Hints:
Layout: H1 18-26, H2 31-37, H3 43-50, H4 56-60
Amino acid sequence: MMVPVRCFSCGKAIGQAYEEFLERVKKGEKAEKVLDDLKITRYCCRRMIFSQADLIDDFMKYNV
């Protein structure tokens, strides 16, 4: 999984929060509440977390 370490817009470190975000959302918590608890309040940082797509597994099929 290749998660951005920092927000592309503001530079805040967000990579450490991604795995906890995924776990808590899969358990049924609302994404908004999880991000608030993780202290990710800026819109640009929230966008980075929400728009993250795990494509590395798809790319590894074509490893040459």
